[in-house]
Amino acid sequence: NRILNLKESVGIKIEGAKNLIANNFINIAGIGLAKGIEINTGSNLSKIIHNSINITSNHKDGRALEINNSDSLMVWNNIFCNKGNDYTNAGIGYYAVYFNTYHQGILKEWYKNSYYSSTNKIGFLNNVDYSDVVSLNQPYPNGIGGSDWGVYNPYFASDIDLRPYQRYLNG
User: What is each CA distance from 143 to 11, 55, 78, 96, 110, in whole angstroms?
Assistant: First the structure.
């Protein structure tokens, strides 16, 4: 699916258990709040696999992925990119991934995801901003996940053509 050129909205909102969200290109622009994928309470056992998300909205609370609460999520091989920045809120927000809540059972698998934020805020977890994958994985004994690709600008072909030209993501 290609969900492109949305303004100030949510690309995909997940409510209910056992969803498969796979192979999507999502781009949200504008000046208002933008969320690529929003996972809400009760979306247990959902799978988020092989999505490319590009947030270009200039709202400081924008995020490529937001997890509000659930259990046993599987998040594999995604690109979470937030290039928004209005330059008046220097260094604030513009997250790649955002956890409103976190507990040890929320993630079943978190594997081979890539993150990018124009403000170097790749994650938000327990009211703390994180700028690197290693730190984001530290608060819990098993981290938030397994093996991640890392923090790379995907160099998408364009804001709406989400084929990555980043060498580390293409092999």
Answer: 27, 25, 18, 17, 10
The whole model's pTM is what? 0.89
Structural contact between residues 166 and 153, judged by C-beta atoms closer than 8 angstroms: yes
Work out the number of other CB atoms within 10 angstroms of the CB of residue 25.
Answer: 19
Residue 167 is given by DSSP the state H
pLDDT, one tens digit per residue, over 80-122 is: 999 987 666 555 558 899 988 776 667 777 788 888 888 878 8
DSSP three-state, residue 47: strand
Q: Single out the residue of 51, 49, 50, 47 nearest to residue 64, CA to CA.
A: 51
Cα separation, 94 vs 169, in Å, equals 22
